[in-house]
Each structure stands twice: as C-alpha cells, then as structure tokens.
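A student in our group prepared the protein record below, which I am reviewing. Thanks in advance; the entry in question is below.
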Amino acid sequence: MKISLAEINPKVGDLKYNTKLIIKHAEIANKNGAEILVTPELSLCGYPPEDLLLEKEFIDKCNHFLIEIAKKFPKLKIIIGHPRRKNKLLFNSVSLLYKGKINKTYDKQKLPNYGVFDEKRYFSSGRKPGLFKHKGKKFGLLICEDIWEDGPLEELNQLNADYVICVNASPYEFNKTKNKINIIQNRIDKLQGLNLIYLNCVGGQDELLFDGNSFITKPKKQKKNNLSFLSGQFISKNIIVDFSSSNNVEIKKICEKFPFHRKILNDPVALRDSSSSEKYLIYNLLNGLILAMKDYIEKNSIKKVFLGLSGGIDSAVVLFIASKVIKKENITAIMMPSEFTSKMSLEDAKKLATNLAVDYKIIPIKKHVKLFDETLKDDFVGLNEDITEQNIQARIRGMIL
C-alpha cells in the first residue's frame, strides 16, 4: 500500500493555481503507484483564507474545482482540504475524492481561536468522526487542532482505526518540531496500535510561515524506532510512502523540489557547522526567513525592493535575505544618515551593499529633522531631548522609503 504525501505551498485565494498544483501531485502519485494522495489543511484555497470565506461565490468555486479534480483522477483516492457550506453553516473540511465524486467528508471538530488563529469567526465545529476503508484497513481523518485536544483521536481509536491521517496548516515556530512530536507521540502511545500520518503544508503567507516537517509515527511499544521519518523543512515536495504487510514503513521516493520555491541555502559558511545543534537551528531558521520573504514577494507580485540600511545588524540581515530571493538589480539599499549617524555605520552600510552587489543610495535626513524641530519647537519648550526625537527620525526614514 502506497500513500503519496503532498507538502504543497498553495496561494491563498488562487483556486486555479492550487488546483493545478494538486493535479501535479496527483500525477506524481499515479506515476509512482500510490493509491492515496493526501494534501494539507485547506489546500484547495490556501491557509488562512480569512474573509474570502464570507463570499458565497468563493465557496461555490471551491466545490467546482473539487469535482474537477475528482473527475480527472477517478481511480486515485485523493484527500483534499477545503471549506464547505452546509445548511448555512461553514466548515473547515477534508473530502475523500474517488470514482469521480466526493466520497466522504469530515468536518474539523476543534477550532483554534488563539494567537494567529481565529477559526471560530468563520467556521462551525464538526460533530462526527471521519473514517474510510482502504484494502481492509480503517483510516481516520483529523484536521490540525483535532490532534491536540482530547476527543477526536480517542474516538477514532474506539472505532478501531488502523491509521489516522492528520492534515495540517501548522505555523512554524523556532525549535518547535521536537516538542510537537513528543506531545503527539505521548498521545499516540496511550492508544492501541494506532499509526499516525501527519502532513503539514509549506510556505509563507503574509505573517505566517509553514515549514512542512511531516512525519509518520506509531506507538513505541509497537516499534522501538517509532518515528518512521521526518520530511524536512521549507521545501515543497511529494513523498511516496510504502506501508508493507509487516507494518513497516519504507520511504520509496522523495520527488523533485517544485520550481516555485527557492533552493535550500548553501553558502553562509559561518552557520554551516553540522556538529553544532544550535548553529543548525539558526541555519534552518535562516532558510525559513528566506522562504517567508520569497513567498511574500512572489505571491504579492512585488517586483522591486527598497530597503533602509542603518549600518547595524538588523537591516544587514534583512538585506542579505532579500539578496537571496530577488534579483540584485531589483534591490535598492538606502542609507538615510542624520547628524547622529557614525562614520562606522556609513562605512559598514556601503561595504554591505557593495559586497551584495545591490544599488546603493545615500539620502541625508538632517534638513528634514530640522524642519520637524522647527515645526514642533513651541510644543517642546522646556523639555529635554529623549526618544521622541529618535522616533521622529524613524518616521522621516519611513516616509522616504
């Protein structure tokens, strides 16, 4: 039994693009003999779709593209995340497509409403478990938050599910992977022989970053090395997993990286020290920041970048990242010195721009600061200079950019 896991990078709202992406992964699944293709949470519309969900036409189009995919691959079982409306209620759902139609649908039961999540603004909670059969095995379905809270996983276990497929749009956090796997593993260990297939999406969307890092795990009592594989971060890929009759897992093939995404960075020499776990984490974080910026630029059709340099480390890192995701001729670094800017800052900024081969401009702001000082002098009478004046400089630089 082969299952294809598609760590895709969708574009929020671009249903045609996302449909083509899913079709491409379905073709890879067919080519490699997979019987089931799994895509992440809300893979058809991208995550988070936010107020697009309030548009009836958008939900209708999602359903149209679902049927289009189903008809194109009638012999392949495809699990797709999508929004769906039923009886005036909206659900965060996954559907099993098979034989040219929607065969099964599961609605997410546990809706996160904290941090970056506001799913209760849009969705209603599902009430029933998701279960389907394939080759005599029972497969349960969960969506992201369902795996973290009590109820849905335990219910699937009571229904004697052999495998649980949990599809996710779980945002990246620095050094989150180990804690995430440990928590989920502890939950799996309490159950009877349940195998978990955890699939996450990849890519940047506005302020969110998704890192992939999909995995398969099973109870420790069933296998000493319970974690079968960890897919890796920040690269969109298709993973063909072969489940043998002996209940072992073999990764048959990891397909080519998809051209929409940048290549893994391989040149920051100071960070490439595999003997240091801390440096590896920082190196990995850098790759994540590169993907986040690249996706923000490409998904918003941004053609040029104008970036303020200070001569300090913060703007230097941002310029370095920008140089990795957009052509250097489309980057302009601007130094905006005031009377307080040191000679070293000016020299460092110029050297950085030269080393990265980007366009470099100097626009002094001294006269702009004096104009503000003159305008506000009556309001500042009797007051000592403090951070207020520094903030005025920051706003002047922002206006110039």
